[in-house]
Amino acid sequence: MTGSDKKRFYVTTPIYYVNDKPHIGHAYTTLACDVLARFKRLDGFEVMFLTGTDEHGQKVEKAATDKGVTPQAFTDSVSQNFRDLTSRMNFSNDDFIRTTEARHRAACQKLWSILLERGHITLGSYAGWYAVRDEAFYTETEIVDGKAPTGAPVEWVEEPSYFFNLSQWQEPLLEFYEANPDFVGPASRFNEVKSFVSGGLRDLSVSRASFSWGVPVPDDDAHVMYVWLDALTNYLTATGWPVDGDFGDKDRNERFWPADLHMVGKDILRFHAVYWPAFLMAAGLPLPKRVFAHGWWTNEGEKISKSLGNVIDPNLLAEEFGLDQTRYFLMREVPFGNDGDFSRRAMIHRMNGDLANDLGNLSQRVLSMIFKNCSGVMPALPATAAPEDSALLDAADAMLGKVRAHMDLQSFHEALRCIWEVVSDANKYVDTTAPWGLKKTDPVRMGEVLAVLAETIRQAAILVQPVMPGSASKILDQLGVADDQRGFDMLAGAGRIAAGVEISKPEPVFPRFVEEEGEV
Ligand code: MSP
Fold it and tell me: Edge to edge, what strands does the sheet with 207-208 contain?
């Protein structure tokens, strides 16, 4: 496919508050998007993958004041930490947006003007509870023991405020949900969204007048926009919207809006599945196709929090266990959408089991045998496959279809499970065919068996590229697969391992983790 008929995929992470250092929760959301973005690119899509930082609002202003620096200087430095994380975790984002950029201010102000012109924003006054930590308003009935339902401290706020007529969007939202049954995943979370909206919506305060660190409301400098209206708009800004503005990009906007997927944590689903579609409907703009809410990580069974001092730094995980091992663990260990617990024991178990023993050992054994017993030249596949060869090759060819279906539902753990099923079949095939014993008795058959195995490893390695780009590429290098032969168009029988290619002495790709005495 070329030009305008190319398949496209636009995926976004939430933009991260810059009040703090990046931690495992942030890395997790972006990793999931990175895996999807890489997957879609390999599957022939033109991809736009966006991440960035959410830099306005009271929370960030307060963090800057506490540090005794200006909000701009503070956000410049913390935003850089998030940018650094993207390179350290090997994230392949195409853009990194900061809400303090001029392009974003222009988009927010344009969206505001449209909503105002269409009569959806009016001036009033707000009196109620506000939680700075959540940057969210709460009603009296939601307050539990003097706190927000999330446990965040609340303060009483009374100030002039612009309101968005969210109450008018209850029916249109419910109709939209009905017509788009895949709009929110997982399904259980979609039900929560629907019941929240069915319970009635109140107009939403969309400006603040008691501080100034935000996007100024057009023609009313006394107000800055509510940080969530500002933040959500980033998804549009990055597509070059408004297309006729100073930063407009008509072509990009047409190619990528509406977004295919907003990936979010469960705590911020309401903003994405209720407020954001309502703003867009009110502005007459197309709605995103899907929002997926993933679960939260705990650390050795405990809620992660700064006060408990158990925040997990993704950089340290990658340093200790390896980057790809960390990426694999996060995507494999917990059914995506559920909450999950990080434990060293589980991390080491996956690293040594799935990676070192299963895939690592398979590829090291097969490549070493080819190197030693076939003079380092890739043998040919059998002209007529034996039943056990066909069974393994068929399973390898069937992987792409299964993995793709799971990826389209953001079931990363299932996608990986499908690949590891075939890795396990391949390990059994090694045991039953015992190629080492064929060297003397039937070297031709030995070559065929090794080629069937190399072909299976080739397909598995191509499919794990999105999750473990570095390690997969080492395996593919060792198999002699050319760089331009690693797309998904080379899977499912469309490509085969090339016989006659010389391979070099294989090196293990997945080391075992040996815990220091007494640590586990
Ligand atoms: N700035 C808003 C998002 C605006 S999007 C238009 C925000 N930022 S955040 O930095 O607080 O959180 C970003 C993401 O990190 C959320 O998706 C949240 O769910 C995720 N996580 C934060 N802690 C987490 C865990 N312990 N586990 C998994 N994800 C968690 O919200």
Answer: 207-208, 220-225, 216-217
pLDDT value of position 519: 52
Residue 406's domain comprises 352-490
Give the mean pLDDT per block of 10 residues along the chain (520 residues): 73 92 93 98 98 94 92 93 94 98 98 98 94 90 92 93 98 98 97 97 95 96 96 98 97 98 97 98 98 95 82 93 98 97 95 98 97 96 97 98 98 98 98 94 97 98 98 97 97 95 95 75
Total count of domains within the chain:
1
Whether 121 is in a domain gets the answer no
The owner of tokens 């008509």 is 250
Residue 378 lies in a domain: yes
Among protein residues, the one with the nearest Cα to ligand 1's atom 8 is 16
- Name the residue with the closest Cα to ligand 1, atom 29: 25
**Secondary structure class of 39 (helix, strand, coil):** helix
Q: Which of 111, 134, 296, 412 to mutate to test the pocket of ligand 1 (most atoms within 8 A of CB)?
A: 296
Atom of ligand 1 nearest to the CA of 235: 6
CA of 128 to the centre of ligand 1 (A): 25
* pTM across the whole model: 0.96
Q: How far, in Å, is the centroid of ligand 1 from the Cα of 25?
A: 6
Pocket of ligand 1 (CB under 6 A): 14-17, 25-26, 28-29, 54, 231-232, 264-265, 267-268, 296-297, 304
Question: 437 C-alpha to center of ligand 1: Å?
Answer: 54
Q: 361-373 and 443-464 helices cross at what angle (nearest 10)? A: 140
- The answer as to whether 83 is a domain residue is no
Alpha helices in 374-411 (DSSP H): 387-408
Q: Which of 13, 16, 53 to mutate to test the pocket of ligand 1 (most atoms within 8 A of CB)?
A: 16
Give domain status of residue 428, yes or no: yes
Phi (first) and psi of residue 64, to 5 degrees: -65, -45
* Cβ(95)–Cβ(48) below 8 Å: yes
The pLDDT value recorded for residue 234 is 98
The CATH number linked to 397 is 1.10.730.10
Given a contact cutoff of 8 angstroms between Cβ atoms, the answer to whether 29 and 39 are in contact is: no
